Fold:
Amino acid sequence: MARSTVLRSWPIEEGVARPILTLVLGACLAGCSGVPFLVPDTRTPADHAREVEPKCKDFGEAAAAPMLAPGAIDAVEPAYSYVQSGPADRQAYLRGARIRIKPLPGFSRETIARSVECHEARVLLGQAAARPDDPYVMPDHWLDIDVESEGDGFAVLARTDEMDIARQVLARAQRYAGSASAR
Structure:
Protein backbone atom coordinates (compact mmCIF):
# COMPACT_ATOMS: atom_id res chain seq x y z
CA MET A 1 0.00 0.00 0.00
CA ALA A 2 1.48 3.36 -1.02
CA ARG A 3 2.10 6.08 1.56
CA SER A 4 -0.52 8.40 0.06
CA THR A 5 -3.09 5.58 0.31
CA VAL A 6 -2.30 5.13 4.02
CA LEU A 7 -2.62 8.84 4.70
CA ARG A 8 -5.92 8.96 2.75
CA SER A 9 -7.33 6.14 4.90
CA TRP A 10 -6.76 8.15 8.10
CA PRO A 11 -9.75 10.11 9.41
CA ILE A 12 -7.72 13.34 9.21
CA GLU A 13 -6.60 15.28 6.18
CA GLU A 14 -3.20 14.59 4.59
CA GLY A 15 -1.92 18.15 5.19
CA VAL A 16 -2.51 17.72 8.94
CA ALA A 17 -1.26 14.11 9.21
CA ARG A 18 2.33 14.86 8.23
CA PRO A 19 2.97 17.47 10.99
CA ILE A 20 1.28 15.19 13.54
CA LEU A 21 3.49 12.26 12.53
CA THR A 22 6.56 14.50 12.72
CA LEU A 23 5.60 15.69 16.22
CA VAL A 24 4.91 12.15 17.44
CA LEU A 25 8.23 10.87 16.07
CA GLY A 26 10.09 13.85 17.56
CA ALA A 27 8.47 13.32 20.95
CA CYS A 28 9.41 9.62 20.90
CA LEU A 29 13.02 10.40 20.06
CA ALA A 30 13.24 13.17 22.66
CA GLY A 31 11.64 10.93 25.29
CA CYS A 32 14.26 8.22 24.72
CA SER A 33 17.01 10.59 25.85
CA GLY A 34 15.41 10.68 29.28
CA VAL A 35 15.71 6.90 29.68
CA PRO A 36 18.89 6.37 31.75
CA PHE A 37 19.85 2.97 30.35
CA LEU A 38 19.90 4.36 26.79
CA VAL A 39 22.18 7.29 27.60
CA PRO A 40 25.76 6.68 28.76
CA ASP A 41 26.67 7.94 32.23
CA THR A 42 29.07 10.85 31.71
CA ARG A 43 29.60 11.66 35.39
CA THR A 44 33.18 11.60 36.62
CA PRO A 45 34.20 9.59 39.71
CA ALA A 46 34.37 12.91 41.61
CA ASP A 47 30.80 13.71 40.47
CA HIS A 48 29.61 10.37 41.89
CA ALA A 49 31.53 11.00 45.12
CA ARG A 50 30.00 14.47 45.54
CA GLU A 51 26.51 12.99 45.05
CA VAL A 52 27.13 10.42 47.82
CA GLU A 53 28.94 12.78 50.21
CA PRO A 54 25.84 14.48 51.75
CA LYS A 55 24.61 11.03 52.91
CA CYS A 56 27.85 10.31 54.76
CA LYS A 57 27.82 12.49 57.85
CA ASP A 58 26.79 9.57 60.09
CA PHE A 59 29.14 7.07 58.41
CA GLY A 60 32.69 7.99 59.39
CA GLU A 61 35.88 6.09 58.69
CA ALA A 62 36.38 5.14 62.36
CA ALA A 63 32.95 3.49 62.63
CA ALA A 64 33.48 1.58 59.37
CA ALA A 65 37.08 0.52 60.17
CA PRO A 66 36.23 -2.98 61.51
CA MET A 67 34.23 -3.76 58.37
CA LEU A 68 36.86 -2.28 56.01
CA ALA A 69 39.77 -4.15 57.62
CA PRO A 70 41.43 -6.97 55.65
CA GLY A 71 40.77 -9.33 58.59
CA ALA A 72 37.01 -8.92 58.09
CA ILE A 73 37.23 -10.66 54.72
CA ASP A 74 36.37 -14.36 54.56
CA ALA A 75 36.93 -14.83 50.83
CA VAL A 76 37.22 -13.03 47.50
CA GLU A 77 35.61 -14.32 44.31
CA PRO A 78 35.03 -12.87 40.85
CA ALA A 79 31.77 -10.92 40.45
CA TYR A 80 30.03 -11.78 37.19
CA SER A 81 27.04 -10.50 35.24
CA TYR A 82 25.31 -12.84 32.83
CA VAL A 83 23.94 -11.96 29.42
CA GLN A 84 21.69 -14.16 27.30
CA SER A 85 23.81 -15.33 24.36
CA GLY A 86 21.50 -17.87 22.78
CA PRO A 87 18.20 -19.63 23.31
CA ALA A 88 19.55 -21.71 26.21
CA ASP A 89 22.95 -20.15 26.88
CA ARG A 90 24.28 -17.32 29.02
CA GLN A 91 27.62 -15.51 28.68
CA ALA A 92 29.46 -14.52 31.89
CA TYR A 93 31.17 -11.11 32.05
CA LEU A 94 33.64 -10.23 34.79
CA ARG A 95 32.45 -7.10 36.60
CA GLY A 96 34.82 -6.95 39.60
CA ALA A 97 35.04 -8.62 43.01
CA ARG A 98 32.60 -10.39 45.31
CA ILE A 99 34.10 -9.84 48.76
CA ARG A 100 32.64 -12.09 51.45
CA ILE A 101 32.92 -10.50 54.86
CA LYS A 102 32.44 -12.06 58.27
CA PRO A 103 29.36 -11.19 60.29
CA LEU A 104 30.08 -8.17 62.44
CA PRO A 105 27.89 -7.05 65.35
CA GLY A 106 25.80 -3.99 64.61
CA PHE A 107 26.25 -4.00 60.83
CA SER A 108 23.30 -4.49 58.49
CA ARG A 109 23.35 -4.87 54.73
CA GLU A 110 22.34 -1.21 54.34
CA THR A 111 24.91 0.02 56.87
CA ILE A 112 27.71 -1.84 55.11
CA ALA A 113 26.64 -0.53 51.70
CA ARG A 114 26.51 3.08 52.89
CA SER A 115 29.79 2.75 54.83
CA VAL A 116 31.64 1.39 51.79
CA GLU A 117 30.15 4.00 49.43
CA CYS A 118 31.07 6.79 51.85
CA HIS A 119 34.59 5.38 52.24
CA GLU A 120 34.92 5.31 48.44
CA ALA A 121 33.63 8.90 48.16
CA ARG A 122 35.97 10.20 50.89
CA VAL A 123 39.03 8.57 49.31
CA LEU A 124 38.18 9.82 45.81
CA LEU A 125 37.62 13.36 47.14
CA GLY A 126 40.92 13.28 49.07
CA GLN A 127 39.22 13.40 52.48
CA ALA A 128 40.58 10.00 53.57
CA ALA A 129 43.75 8.12 52.83
CA ALA A 130 43.57 5.17 50.48
CA ARG A 131 44.85 1.87 51.85
CA PRO A 132 47.19 -0.16 49.63
CA ASP A 133 45.08 -2.42 47.36
CA ASP A 134 41.83 -1.19 48.94
CA PRO A 135 39.21 -3.29 47.11
CA TYR A 136 36.46 -0.74 47.66
CA VAL A 137 38.23 2.10 45.85
CA MET A 138 39.77 2.25 42.40
CA PRO A 139 41.78 5.41 41.70
CA ASP A 140 40.09 7.56 39.05
CA HIS A 141 37.11 5.19 38.75
CA TRP A 142 33.76 4.95 40.50
CA LEU A 143 32.85 1.42 41.58
CA ASP A 144 29.24 0.35 41.93
CA ILE A 145 28.83 -1.07 45.44
CA ASP A 146 26.10 -3.55 46.34
CA VAL A 147 25.80 -5.72 49.43
CA GLU A 148 24.01 -9.04 49.72
CA SER A 149 23.20 -10.95 52.88
CA GLU A 150 24.58 -14.48 52.67
CA GLY A 151 23.91 -16.94 55.47
CA ASP A 152 25.60 -15.52 58.54
CA GLY A 153 27.75 -13.01 56.64
CA PHE A 154 27.65 -10.55 53.78
CA ALA A 155 29.01 -10.21 50.25
CA VAL A 156 30.15 -6.79 49.09
CA LEU A 157 30.14 -6.51 45.31
CA ALA A 158 32.57 -3.91 43.95
CA ARG A 159 31.76 -3.71 40.24
CA THR A 160 32.40 -1.75 37.08
CA ASP A 161 31.40 -2.11 33.43
CA GLU A 162 34.99 -1.83 32.17
CA MET A 163 36.65 -5.26 31.79
CA ASP A 164 40.24 -4.14 32.45
CA ILE A 165 39.18 -2.20 35.56
CA ALA A 166 37.12 -5.22 36.72
CA ARG A 167 40.28 -7.38 36.51
CA GLN A 168 42.20 -4.80 38.55
CA VAL A 169 39.43 -4.62 41.18
CA LEU A 170 39.48 -8.41 41.56
CA ALA A 171 43.30 -8.51 41.80
CA ARG A 172 43.33 -5.70 44.38
CA ALA A 173 40.67 -7.47 46.47
CA GLN A 174 42.63 -10.73 46.41
CA ARG A 175 45.84 -8.98 47.49
CA TYR A 176 44.00 -6.99 50.19
CA ALA A 177 42.42 -10.14 51.65
CA GLY A 178 45.79 -11.89 51.49
CA SER A 179 47.43 -9.06 53.42
CA ALA A 180 45.45 -10.11 56.53
CA SER A 181 46.94 -13.62 56.50
CA ALA A 182 50.45 -12.26 55.89
CA ARG A 183 50.37 -10.40 59.21
Observations:
- The mean pLDDT is 84.
- Strands lie at 73-86, 89-101, 144-150, 153-159.
- The helical segments are 3-9, 14-32, 45-52, 61-68, 109-124, 163-181.
- Residues 3-38 form one domain.
